[in-house]
Amino acid sequence: MTKPNILIFMTDQQRAQTVFPEHPAKTPYLDIFHKEGIMFTQARCPSPHCCPSRATFFTGLYPSEHGVWHNVNVHNAISRGLNDGVRVWSDDLVKAGYTCSFHGKWHVNDDMGPEHYGWAVNGIEREANPQKDKKDYKQQLENDWEGRRQRAMNPAPTKREEGDIVRHGYGPYKHYLIDEDPFRDQDVVNSGLAALKELCKSDTPWCTYVGTLGPHDPYRVPQRFLDMYKDAPVELPESFRDAMQDKPGLYRRTKARFDQLSDEEHKQAIRHYWAFCSYEDWLFGQLLDELEASGQKENTVVIYCSDHGDYLGDHGIWCKGLPSFTGAYEIPFSIRWPAGLKNPGRRIDARIGLEDMAKTVLELSDNSALKDWPGSGRSLVPFIKDEGPSDWRSAHASQSNGNEQYGIQRSWDDGNWRFVFNGYDEDELYDLNNDPHQMINLARNPDYADQVAECYSKMWAFAYEHRDQCINEYIMTALAEYGPSTAFNRDGTPVASGG
Questions:
Q1: Are 445 and 359 members of one domain?
Q2: Same-domain pairing of 24 and 164
Q3: What CA–CA distance (Å, rounded) separates 199 from 211?
Q4: What number is the average pLDDT over the span 104-115?
Q5: Which of 4, 264, 280, 333 has the most CB atoms lying inside 10 A of its own CB?
Q6: What are the pLDDT digits (tens) for 416-464?
Q7: CB atoms within 10 A of CB 263
Q8: Are 140 and 194 part of one and the same domain?
Q9: Distances in Å between the alpha carbon of 131 and those of 60, 90, 291, 425, 499?
């Protein structure tokens, strides 16, 4: 068999369950796709934020290893790109003879675009990623402050309309709306379609990445897709009424923004989100149709995934960020490869993540770089061949320093217990078997002190494995109940994190 082509479709902020056939979101192309491929039901991202998760996707490393913790192209960015020397798997694909074509969202490095890592790009990528053009941040800051001054002299109406969230001193925000070309995602897909037409004429193996911006907030969708849900019954999440009195204060402060919305507005936002997922499915379908028409479907690996999830009304909050509930970490991740995949239609509950992408691509392409690739993830090819390893990771761990509202946060989750270390506030512990919606925080309950200690040990073990820098022992910053030395046994051997 010749080396397979690779087609990647990556959405932005899509919750995992929206692609499950049993979910109310209507995704007909994905329904067929999953019958022909495999779907990972326990896929997660390393951080509920675009840039660190995308950097993990392209490097196979966690944030502590690749160096991207936040949005790389905002004024108060702490880092603007990958650490020196970090490898991106596309470079090795090109060295192995692949033609790599990039369309859409990058959001990995402010100073270097995908063209610096082997990808051929076009105008759509440039427009989707203004950070690629070197910015004068000092001048932009002055311009932005002038914009705030002008707004003060010409304030926006304070009367709240449907879907509005009023923020005094900030610009207007409408949580959901109609938009016939949201985020120009159709343009991005058109660019990808044009590339496919040319690439499929060649005998050279290719990798095409198409990254859309939907279903990211604000939830803006074409009317015809919203009409698909006009009579759809919507139930608010079981955790929706959680007042979060036993959780960090930032969670309550975040929730207060969305408390302006009525129950019906929350339901309408859910309908808009589902409609946005249907729109993305339709865009994905255009690529699948073109691939089939080209005659190269059989030996093309197609991957559908997202960078992170969305709270989608859980605990009364939306979007993504520091509230560490699982909805923002759970992502779709599905693979189809007619020529090489065994037993299609499988649903796999192994704990995989975006860190596994690098070694998967390298093994699929029979790339010699695989043998010394430094990435933290593992190849998913054994699952493609229905030879899933018995020693796969038993837990997920995450690393976040916040969005641009900075705060140290780490989590460890084995499906039974979810533990969250919040360096800026109270910790969290949830018994997922009895409390799957994370309503009751047990971290301060003395009956669970031993469980907290064990989770800390696992969390720090993962931090040790991935060289997390969050180990400063200064009295005003070393605020964990149990510190990083608990990553080791009394004989000095490291504890197994399971991650």
A1: no
A2: yes
A3: 18
A4: 92
A5: 280
A6: 999 999 999 999 999 999 999 999 999 999 999 999 999 999 999 999 9
A7: 11
A8: yes
A9: 23, 20, 31, 33, 33
